[in-house]
Amino acid sequence: MTQATxxxxxxxxxxVLDIVVNSLYKxxxxxxxxxxxxxxxxxxxxxxxxxxEKDILDDNLELEINLSTDDSAKQLIIQDFGIGMTEExxxxxxxxxxxxxxxxxxxxxxxxxxxxxxxxxxxxxxxYSVFMVSDSVxxxxxxxxxxxxxxxxxxxxxxxxxxxxxxxQRRGTKIVIQLKDEFEEFxxxxxxxxxxxxxxxxxxxxxxxxxxxxxTVDAIxxxxxxxxxxxxxxxxxxxxxNDYDSPLMRLHFSADAPLEIxxxxxxxxxxxxxMGMFRSENKVALHCRKVLIDAEPKSxxxxxxxxxxxxxxxxxxPLNVSRETMQDSxxxxxxxxxxxxxxxxxxxxxxxxxxxxxxxxxKEYGVLLKEGVATxxxxxxxxxxLLRFESTAAEDGKLxxxxxxxxxxxxxxxxxxxxxxxxxxxxxxxxxxxxxQARGYEVLLLTEPVDExxxxxxxxxxxxxxxxxxxxxxxxxxxxxxxxxxxxxxxAVKKLSKWIKQSLEDRVxxxxxxxxxxxxxxxxxxxxxMGGASARRIMKMMQGxxxxxxxxxxxxxxxxxxxxxxxxxxxxxxxxxxxxxVANQLLDNALASxxxxxxxxxxxxxxxxxxxxxxxV
Length: 617
Ligand code: ADP
Ligand code: MG
Fold this sequence. Notes:
Layout: E1 5-8, H1 11-22, H2 30-52, E2 65-70, E3 75-80, H3 87-95, H4 100-110, H5 116-119, E4 134-142, E5 151-155, E6 160-165, E7 172-179, H6 189-200, E8 207-209, E9 212-213, H7 230-241, E10 249-255, E11 261-267, E12 283-288, E13 291-294, E14 309-313, H8 323-327, H9 330-353, H10 355-375, H11 380-384, E15 390-391, H12 402-408, E16 416-420, H13 424-428, H14 433-438, E17 444-446, H15 449-458, E18 460-461, E19 464-468, H16 490-503, E20 508-513, E21 522-525, H17 533-543, E22 554-558, H18 563-574, H19 576-593, H20 600-615
Parallel strand pairs: 2-8, 12-14, 16-17, 16-19, 20-22
Antiparallel strand pairs: 1-6, 2-3, 3-7, 4-5, 4-7, 5-6, 8-9, 10-11, 11-14, 12-13, 15-17, 18-19, 21-22
Helix pairs in contact: 2-6, 9-10, 10-15, 15-17, 18-19, 19-20
Bound molecules: adenosine-5'-diphosphate and magnesium ion (MG).
């Protein structure tokens, strides 16, 4: 055997090594992940080389990764039949910092103000992580090129390394790790199996520990869509999300810019949260080139997408970033944003192409999309497109969206209108729809208590204001068509209005003749802002049934063409106490129609007084 050549590590490499070895890296086990990831990369490179090269050494060797443990010798061996390294490559790859993360690490180290401790764990240190746990490391390697030779690189991770020739080496690389006494756990089969299962379940190549295959699923998300059968997707989904059912939707997509991403996202058939089970946890595993970084990254997707399952793989993620630093990394945020945008676009496409599936999705997860609109400004516009409501333009039970609404809008209609009520019938029987329908305006019918809050958060869509049809923000032009019934003359209306305002001083802020009323005698119109009808209902919703609402005044609209208003005018002149009872009752009815009657007890008391009057003859 020839004399081994000895080399000094480059200064910067020494620096990194020193920090890695002496820092308190919490998860020592990540070195296994690093080495498996390198082995997997080497196999992938060989696989790609095989596509173009014919003359490959040991071409019959399986593309697999074998780990073996020897606890009596305190050794762990990780072997791959990958691309291997030439002497030049050994010097370049293991002798200097090859890992991009390490370079960034050093740059950050050199920049002012940064504390070493806070930096450790922020960057991947790749191969060198093995020196955290070992006294010495040997890397046996042989390149795929037939004219290459077997080599043994050896180092204790301090000053330098040596390279020697070695016989009988097959293609690929074998890392022999002599563990420090305190880390002998890594020479135990069970411990290593657990680590491999945890981090490498989706490594595309088979991984075995002491001859037993450990990983079961291949990295399906890295394959091209056209090659993957539906059953394969399903199996993967079930494995990954522990679901018995097949998924409702899936999105398999890849991108190169702004980030390199391969991702496979699934929507489960059922929203467990809706079934009152528990709060869903986002289970989209984060991978970097097949190696698991974090099975449940907390901040990748926004909260309202917590039902998503699947995998995201991006080679832009540094391999061994610690979980804690990953949570708030800019990269993760960026990745999450790209994925969220893409997923919302996908939903929008589904809504058009696969409407039934989308509506099923809406039924299950609509409530979470609404949560998104109300809590997350970033995706408001994209989310708004997905909202679905009942509408006066759609038959009972059918839903429509805001885009379709705008397409149907009457030429003179400025705003998107909605009304809230307990159910469709309740809204239809209220006093507000008539004026809008007479003008040919469509009204969205909101029946979930949260809907109004969602609309308030949204405020506008495609430059159209979204307003409640019972708010005074809605300005209506006079109708061309003749009103039915004879109108009370102007003087009488003035007198009546003034009287009502005075008599109901505590309850109404203004009395006006409504251009909204056609067949109903009265209605109330909420003022915009806090204290407005919508806002009051929302506050009520948030406080629950027990909540105390401060009394607030409403605008009271009366219909001068209506027989009851004519009657009220006459009564006012003749029998004021009775007229007062009627006026109060009318206001009660109007408030009830607007879902604003806070305490029905008062109304019932008043109503009895009226009845008493009527029945005492
Ligand atoms: P990274 O994997 O990010 O490049 P590492 O520090 O993990 O950084 O590895 C440094 C380099 O060493 C790799 O880029 C690769 O060229 C080489 N290398 C490491 N392990 C192997 C291996 N098992 N087979 C072939 N080359 C390897
Ligand atoms: Mg690596």
